[in-house]
Design goal:
With 603 residues, the protein is α/β, with parallel strands linked by helices. 36% of the residues lie in helices and 17% in strands. It contains 17 helices and 21 strands. It has helices spanning 16-27, 65-75, 82-101, 134-149, 213-220, 252-255, 285-296, 312-324, 343-349, 351-361, 416-438, 447-462, 469-483, 490-507, 520-544, 590-593, 599-602; strands spanning 3-4, 7-12, 32-35, 52-53, 116-117, 127-128, 152-154, 157-165, 168-176, 182-192, 225-226, 231-238, 259-261, 334-337, 370-379, 382-383, 397-399, 487-488, 553-554, 567-574, 577-584. The strands form five sheets. Strands 1, 2, 3, 7, 8, 9, 10 and 17 form an eight-stranded mixed beta sheet that branches. It has a four-stranded antiparallel beta sheet with strand order 16-11-20-21. Strands 12-15-14-13 form a four-stranded antiparallel beta sheet, covered by helices on one side. The radius of gyration is 23 Å and the shape is globular. The termini are far apart. The model has no long low-confidence stretch (mean pLDDT 95). Bound molecules: flavin-adenine dinucleotide. Flavin-adenine dinucleotide (FAD) binds next to helix 1, helix 4, strand 8, strand 15 and helix 11. The site of flavin-adenine dinucleotide has 46 residues, from helix 1, helix 4, strand 8, strand 15 and helix 11.
């Protein structure tokens, strides 16, 4: 029954990172296979709304790669890999122009260039966008391009294990969801482009595919994960009706002038601006309104941005605090209002948001406010990679996109992910191709590995009794949301680790009934194992970091501490145990240090 599909380069994931890597690898002359859990074009990237950050300087020509670099480092509180932040800022404009050349139709400035919108933490309007459907355009363009150059795709296939030889990774194995047939992919090199991991939280903006498979596959193969304590809670997800709780309300709403108010009608973000950054924001309602007017009229302005455009970690904590202190909206959020702008502009700039609220909540956002609250959104942490190549600490294994760590440090600026996919997807594709030229030709996967993997696939059906994967998933979500959420303490994190240990034991005896064909409970068994690994890594890393920085807030360790300024938390596997250690951050080279006003100020 086992199908085998050898390739030079195997790419797991068909989001922006996987497809951009695939184009690069085919153009380098390699045979490339791309595997994805859903259909081509359906990867989570398709949901990205607000835009992709690149210092094109079309709306404000004062922008430059070095300002983008600085914003990214400041946003990440200097825990970023500086070389990644530099390459990203330098290469993003070229990658965006390339996407346009390949057919992406961006919104336009009045003189016909790619339009850019403001976003939190970015000094200048920087996000190239297509209304609020930017991810759709990115995926559509890369999909056309990759099919055009001859990438071979394997859709609706779940990879469950990476294969290892004495020289490193030599392929992967999984099964086709459509019929349950096991599939082997011998390969000279493998790129993980599997996206994020936050289906382990109850309220999340993540699609069903994001169960952290890539993090766990890499971890089990011996790779190191870093920065796993940094989970981004996007400040604005839908809070009502219950069925859509967590669905993202793009930051573009605030980028276009959306105002946050509590139940008392107070514009509360004024009270939450960090003192050391307050000078970057408008001082009054009038200045904030004049900034929005300038934006609407397409004028360059020296006015400062509204307080709602503070970084995501800060806005999420502010909303959480307002609700906790009793000033929340009827459904446990706060109000986000864009209805003071002309209805035609709101519908044109935010078409998806208009439809989303109209259809799902029966709210017309051109007439009244939306109710919003924080939602688990993005993993800053991930697989440790070399900036230039995406090489992991395991030979033959590469990673790009959300699953790879380093670019964002302790907090990601909105819009930096989509250009991350393009810049580092391409780099990983090229590097994996080069390495594949030297690697041994793909053959069959090791026989013992295949036999073990097939047994593991069959095990949940073979058990006559055992637990229900859906129930275990719900319990894990509740644990992560209540004990490893926006605010953390030692007691909560320790309790979460104990519970995860118990869940890991229960995972061994999960049982699945029914056929192999499109059986979501069967999928969930393997996804749950990955979610448990990622959840443990998040909780253990969060316990280790005894300070608050970026997206990681410890109620028992308030504020940043200098001894953590140059430390990443790393985890790796040692038998069945997860080892946690502190590793030094990469040194900030002098030629890059000059772009930060001062490192103290940047922190
Ligand atoms: C609602 C929303 C809006 C966003 N808006 C923006 C924005 O405007 N700008 C921005 O910069 N960022 C945005 N982000 C973040 C950004 O969209 C993601 O970080 C990014 O798309 C991740 O891309 P990726 O290529 O790494 O992975 P994904 O696009 O998540 O793709 C992962 C791929 O891996 C496959 N896969 C996973 N596991 C397996 C497995 N075991 N076997 C086989 N295949 C597997 C999946 O099927 C999928 O094809 C947004 C995120 C959300 C949730």
């Amino acid at each position: 029954m086992l199908e085998s599909h050898p390739h030079d380069v195997l790419i797991i994931g068909a989001g922006g990172a996987g497809l951009r890597a695939a184009v690069a690898a085919v153009e380098a002359g390699r045979s490339v296979g791309v595997v994805c859990k859903s259909l081509l074009g359906k990867a989570h990237t398709v949901m990205a709304e607000g835009g992709m950050a690149a210092s094109l300087g079309h709306v404000d020509d004062r922008d430059s790669w070095s300002t983008h670099f600085r914003d990214t480092m400041v946003g990440g509180r200097l825990l970023n890999n500086p070389r990644k932040a530099e390459l990203h800022a330098r290469e993003a404009p070229e990658r965006v122009r390339e996407l346009e050349y390949w057919g992406a139709v961006f919104d336009r400035t009045r003189d016909g260039r790619i339009l850019q919108r403001p976003f939190g933490g970015h000094t200048y309007p920087r996000l190239a966008h297509v209304g609020d459907r930017t991810g759709l355009e990115l995926i559509r363009t890369l999909q056309d391009r990759s099919v055009g150059v001859g990438v071979q795709t394997y859709q609706e296939v779940i990879i469950t294990r990476l294969a290892l030889s004495a020289d490193g990774v030599c392929g992967a194995i999984g099964y086709r969801r459509v019929d349950g047939v096991p599939m082997a992919f011998p390969a000279r090199t493998v790129i993980l482009a599997t996206g994020g991991a936050l289906r382990s939280f109850t309220v999340t903006s993540n699609s069903w595919e994001l169960s952290g498979d890539g993090y766990a596959l890499a971890y089990r193969a011996g790779a190191e994960l870093i920065d796993m304590e940094f989970v981004q809670f996007h400040p604005t997800g839908m809070v009502h009706p219950p069925g859509v709780r967590g669905l993202l309300v793009t930051e573009a709403v605030r980028g276009e002038g959306g105002i946050l108010r509590n139940a008392l009608g107070e514009r509360f973000m004024w009270d939450y601006l960090p003192e050391d950054r307050r000078h970057e924001y408008a001082a009054t309602d009038e200045e904030a309104r004049a900034w929005v007017d300038a934006l609407t009229e397409g004028r360059v302005t020296d006015l400062r941005r509204p307080p709602e455009l503070s970084t995501r970690d800060n806005v999420a904590r502010a909303i959480y605090t307002e609700v906790k202190e009793g000033r929340g909206s009827p459904h446990g959020g706060v109000f986000l209002d864009i209805s003071y702008l002309p209805a035609e502009r709101v519908r044109r700039k935010l078409p998806s948001m208009y439809d989303q609220f109209k259809e799902l909540a029966d709210v017309d956002i051109t007439v009244g406010p939306m109710e919003v609250g924080p939602t688990a959104h993005y993993m800053m942490g991930g697989i440790r990679v070399v900036a230039e190549t995406g090489a992991t600490t395991v030979p033959g294994l590469y990673a790009a996109g959300e699953v790879a760590a380093g670019l964002h440090g302790s907090n990601r600026l909105g819009g930096n992910s989509l250009t991350d996919l393009l810049v580092f997807g391409r780099r990983a594709g090229e590097a994996a191709s080069e390495a594949a030229a030297e690697a041994a030709p793909p053959d069959e996967l090791p026989a013992g590995f295949v036999a073990e993997s097939l047994d593991a696939l069959a095990a949940p059906f073979d058990r006559t009794e055992g637990g229900d994967p859906n129930r275990l998933h719900a319990e894990l979500q509740e644990t992560m949301s209540s004990l490893v959420g926006i605010f953390r303490t030692e007691a909560d994190l320790s309790a979460a680790i104990d519970r995860i240990d118990e869940y890991k034991a229960r995972w061994q005896s999960l049982r699945v009934a029914g056929p192999r064909r499109f059986n979501p409970a069967w999928d969930l068994v393997f996804e749950l194992r990955n979610m448990l690994t990622v959840s443990e890594a998040i909780a253990r890393s969060a316990l280790e970091r005894t300070e608050s920085r970026g997206a990681h807030s410890r109620l028992d360790h308030v504020g940043m501490r200098s001894e953590w300024d140059d430390r990443n938390v790393a985890v790796r596997r040692d038998g069945d145990a997860m080892l946690v250690s502190q590793t030094p951050t990469l040194e900030l080279p002098a030629e890059l240090r000059q772009y930060l006003a001062s490192t103290t100020e940047a922190r």
